[in-house]
Amino acid sequence: MQDFSAYQAFATEKLGNTFTNPELLVTAFTHRSYVNEHRKTAKEHNERLEFLGDAVLELVVTEHLYGKYNDPEGILTNWRSALVRTESISAAANTHGFEPLLRLSRGEKRGTIRARAQILANAYEAVVGALYLDQGYDAAKRFIETSLLVTFDEILKTGSWMDPKSHLQEIVQSKDGFTPQYKVLEEEGPDHEKTFTVGVYVDGELKGQGVGPSKQAGQVAAAEAALKHYQN
């Protein structure tokens, strides 16, 4: 018989209530790799719950922004994107103690930081889906409000809702009166697997550089590095 105690304790502490069907919550934390490695004992992974939770999450965030702000559609869309992106929801999952409850294969446990962030984000959406099925829309909404929407003021304050290049341009033009210029500093690798090192310059001075699999990705990485320079 499966031990649900750790998951029910999590539900009580972080979600506000125990689950009528605790298997739903366990499934929300179960990665596909775990099922592949434990075929005899693991029934289902969390991808279907993630699919459902993604829709609930987007509706709750959209409803919140529409009801609270009178800004144009384009601004609201950018704000919503900032709230539901992988970085935002994986951070919320991490803050709320998801990590110890994840059921992963041995290989996934040794994965990269970026891969783990994606797994946490997927688990967050799956938990939202599980909450919706077990306790209804209002319970899922309360969890999203207390775990994710509370971070929105900081997103607005830092300007992180803008893409890095737009954010950098706004800051540079405000502080220095110039427009950032990007330059490819180095190309490496064969044509099918190139990496580009890109520098971003303000009035001829290098402010940041980044590496990416395309020139555009390199520019975004360089802009992110330059933003840290300006924020410091």
Can you tell me about this structure?
This protein has 232 residues and is mainly alpha-helical. The protein has two domains: 5-158, Ribonuclease III domain (Ribonuclease iii, N-terminal Endonuclease Domain, Chain A); 164-231, Double Stranded RNA Binding Domain (2-Layer Sandwich). 61% of the residues lie in helices and 10% in strands. A three-stranded antiparallel sheet has the order 1-2-3, with helices on one face. It is globular, with a radius of gyration of 21 Å. The model has no long low-confidence stretch (mean pLDDT 91).
Q: Give the total of domains.
A: 2
Helix content percent band? 55-70%
Uncertain runs: none
What's the CATH class label of the largest domain? Mainly Alpha
What's the Cα radius of gyration? 21 Å
**Total strand segments:** 3
Q: Outline of this structure?
A:
This protein is mostly helical and 232 residues long.
Question: Which descriptors would you attach to this protein?
Answer:
globular; Double Stranded RNA Binding Domain; single chain; 232 residues; mainly alpha; 10% strand; 2 domains; 12 helices; Ribonuclease iii, N-terminal Endonuclease Domain, Chain A; 3-stranded antiparallel sheet
Strands, helices and their partners?
Blueprint: H1 5-15, H2 22-28, H3 32-37, H4 47-68, H5 73-84, H6 86-95, H7 106-109, H8 113-135, H9 137-147, H10 152-158, H11 164-175, E1 181-188, E2 195-202, E3 205-212, H12 215-231
Antiparallel strand pairs: 1-2, 2-3
